[in-house]
Amino acid sequence: MRRTVSAAMDLDVDTVSDLVMAVSVTALPGLTVDERLVVEHDGAPLEVAELTEATGTRLHLAHAEAGRVTVRYDATVDGTAEAAPVEQLDLIAYRRPSRYCESDQLLPTAYAEFQGLDGKPLLDAVSSWVGAQLRYIPGSSKPTDGATETLLARQGVCRDYAHLVVALLRALDVPARLVAVYAPGLDPMDFHAVAEAYIEDAWHVVDATALAPRSSLLRIATGRDAADTAFLTTIGGPVTLRMLQVTATVDELPADDMTRLVRLC
Predict the structure, then answer these.
(1) What is the mean pLDDT of each run of 10 residues along the chain (265 residues)?
(2) What is the pTM of this model?
(3) Can you list the domains of the chain with their CATH numbers?
(4) Cα separations in angstroms, 126 against 15, 172, 206, 264
(5) Taking a C-beta distance cutoff of 8 angstroms, is the pair 110, 170 a contact?
(6) How does 192-228 read in b/e, with b if 16+ C-beta sit within 10 Å?
């Protein structure tokens, strides 16, 4: 499988700021990644440092003065990634409540709806239930909304769907986390967010939106929730996002067989 992805951002930086970008594909064993990242400040190259988190998430840090910063990333990715590594500490951390996945608050809901289920039947039930409870409405939620607010509002975007899935699974002691991905087949095209759950000794994708084939997704960032997976973090003064454009294609868009567990590349 060959996937071609890109991300472009135009930013207006008001005062001196550090920009932390998470737009690069996670380079896991089994993948061949041919990529290019260009960051410029008022048309001149801007120095960028790469930092890699324990999850494999690659952050790019740039120190910018006031002005226009442009970010251009593109990559061609061949192959299928090997299974993501599993650490015992991760399985503890991803069972705990987090900022946007309040599994402690949603414990009664999780037990009322899914008690007695485990393994793939549990993942299927949670995904179907969340998909039925929520309406996908772009712009309907705030960046600071968590899973509880999403369930009360009964609407949201991919991030909100993933937060609710993660929170419900954690409430049932299933390790779950959020992953930012490139998603060939997604419409409208953008960065996408899905849940990942640990069952049968591996991490598997859960996407309650069903907006893109799971097997074509490419991992960008992995974390407890959206606080860990933002495509842009700013440290310092105000920064305005003037333009964001994302593309993701695959040589042949696969069908999504919902009877199978799918690992995320």
Answers:
(1) 96 97 94 97 97 95 97 96 84 97 98 96 98 95 95 97 98 98 95 97 96 96 97 95 97 92 87
(2) 0.95
(3) 2-80+233-247 (2.60.40.2250), 88-228 (3.10.620.30)
(4) 44, 11, 9, 18
(5) no
(6) bbbbbbbbeeebbbbbbbebbbbbbbbbbbbbbbbeb
